[in-house]
Every structure is written in C-alpha cells, then in structure tokens.
Specification:
By secondary structure, the chain is of the alpha/beta class. It has two domains: 12-126, P-loop containing nucleotide triphosphate hydrolases (Rossmann fold); 132-427, no CATH class. The protein has 18 helices and 13 strands. Strand 3 (74-77), helix 5 (84-94) and strand 4 (102-106) form a beta-alpha-beta unit.
Amino acid sequence: MGSPSPGYRPRIVDSELSELTDQLPAVAIEGAKAVGKTATASRRAVTSFRFDDLAQRSVAEADLDRVIRSTPPVLIDEWQHLPAIWDKVRRAVDAGARPGSFLLTGSNAPRDTGTHSGGGRIVGLRMRPLSLAERVGEPPTVSLRALLDGTRPAVGGTTAFRLEDYAEEILASGFPGIRALTGRARRSQLDGYLARVVDRDFAELGQQVRNPVALRRWMSAYAAASSTTATFERIRDASTGGHAEKPARSTVMPYRDVLERLFILEPVPAWRPTRNRIAELAEPPKHQLVDPALAARLLGATVDALIEGEAPGPFIPRDGTLVGALFESLVTLSLRVYTQASEARVGHLRTHRGHHEIDLIVERDDGRILAVEVKLNPNPTRDCVKHLTWLAREIGDDLLDAVIVTTGNEAYRRPDGIAVVPAALLGP
C-alpha cells in the first residue's frame, strides 16, 4: 500500500501530474534514478508494486492480471523490469480504466519503441532533479510563464544569493536524497550513483562494459564539455589524455546512447525555427548531464576550485570558466522544469561560425520564443546583450521577450527592455 512520504516537499511536476491524472487513466513518470519519481507517485497511490524488488517482481510476473485488478490508483514502480506490464496497462486503458488508475515510473527509456509506445493510452511525463525554485527557501519573483505570454511584464525582486551559493548548489545536486547530505557523505553518494551507472545500469540494458575505466574517463570528458557543443571526437580525444590510441567510434557511441536512455545525459538540441529563416544555423546539441552535481563530481570540482576559476578534469576548450559552464547547466536544468510546466520546449542557438550564440531558446507551440542568456556577471554589459539584440532584429515580434539570467541580487529591466533576472528569482 502506498503512503505519503514524510517531509515531502511539493514539486513543480506535481501540478502537471494532477492535470493529467484528473482526466487520463495512465501516466508514466520517467527520469533518472533518484530524482524522486517514487516519492511523488507514492503520495497518490493506494496500491504499489516495486518491480526493482525481485520478490515483488516474481509474484507479479506469475499473475500480471492481479496488478491490473488491484485497487487504484496503482503505482507500478520501475516498470521496465517487467516490460509485459506495459501492454497489460494499455489494454486496461482500452477496456475503460478510469482517470488516475495507473502510475508507472521508469528509469530508462526502453529501446523497443513498439512496446514502449502507449499510442496515446499511456502518457509520458518527464521528471528531473530539483530546480532552483524548488531548492531555494524564498519564493521566485519572476515567472517564466509570464515571460512567455508576450506582454513583457515588469520584473522585480531581490535575493541574497551570491556566486558562492550557486557554486554550492551545483555541488549539492538536485537529487532529493543526496542534497540533504554534506561533505564526504554527499561525495560518497554521488560516487556510488556514478558507479552504479557503470557497473549495473549498463548491464541491465544489455550493454557489456569491457573497460569500465575507459567509460568513466569518457563520462568525465563529457562532463568537462558541459554547456559546449564540442564534437564527440573531441570528447573522445579528451577522455584518452592525448594518447595516440583512441577508442573506436563503435565503442564510444553506445556509451552516449545508453547514458541518454538512462536519462543521465540530456543534451540541449539546436533550435530549428518554424516561423523564421535565420541563415547558417548550426545543428550540434549542447552537452548537459541531468544534474550538474554529477558533472562536478566526475571532474573532482570543489566550491573553492570553481570560485577560483580552476578547471579540474580533462581539457575541453570552452568560452569562459568551468563555474560558468556549470552555472549554465544549473540554469538549464531549472529552466527545463519551468518550461515543461508551461508546455514549451528548450533549445539553443548557434550559427555555423559561432558569430551568434544564444544559450537557451524557449519555444511555444506557435513558434514564438523567449531568448535566454546565462551570465556569471551580476551586472550585464553591452557585450552581454549583443546576441539578444541581433536576434530581435532578425525575428521581430516573434521574440516574446529576452532575458539575461545572472548571479546578481536584483531583478529589473534594462532601458533596452531586456530583463535581468538572478537565477534564484526565476520560477515557473
């Protein structure tokens, strides 16, 4: 039987889940391990089945219909361990299951899209680590939803958050069960999380890891490439430390594929405008891990190292510092949570020669966009807004608003209309 989790803090995704379960019979909550899927779903469930528990899985496998017949709402946790249950739920929906009957959670995206397709019967909902708005004690004063409505609302508010606080949040992680820890205990938990990915999760997806050390090095190189569009060849080369012998592409590409299926990698796709034509747009994704704490741990970064501008780990060329790259990762994670709540999507913009780059593009279904630059500088200069003003000239009224997310203390609008918003003050 499910029961509320003690000390549970409501998540932004809770409102999305309520909207779906009020009208839909089955919802699959998907995301990396430890993001809080089970805790969120358990609060709504009357009956729970944990398929990562071999005993429970064996009992259910012997009588799948018993799962379907159980008192709803039924939580089927880590359903991918018993894929046959997916079709059972789908058939139950076809047979007239009532709204909110089934909640499924999963920590990997099965490769068999025929099995995984709910055909509209089972609706997916992504859950990510905690955003800044879910971590910070003070309520956000600037709403992404309001910025997306095209009215260019007034922005305001102040925060005591400083660069050191953001560096600490990068390391603290958005995994609810990890961020409560400190010091060595937190580092050990993050190390254990990464070790499980290499030692167990790859095998569970049928991918044999012949050289775990090489995989860990590749993950560290990918972490070093956070917030860049570095080629996979460059990441591969960085992972070998300059050695002449490089792993074959056929070895490296499965790493990426499995890590994306595990929701560990979540690259930001290149924005492809649907309403405007902008010459020479590049298409490589911008690299991001699901949580910047994983990147920081893979690189051995500390708060002091980040603040002092050090860049431990493999070398990947980037514009700016590692703390700037990981601050952008933290903002990207948060913005994705807020954007999903507004039923929009996130991309990035870069022209082929890199003459123009905008860190994040939030696009509504109608193709109109919000442009977001992420800057460590608490007081943006004219140079910080040049790409935003270029984009405004290129697409005109299709630019709903332009924002610079900073480490500053105050939210305001510049004389040119661009909003300047501290990351801690931005929310859904």
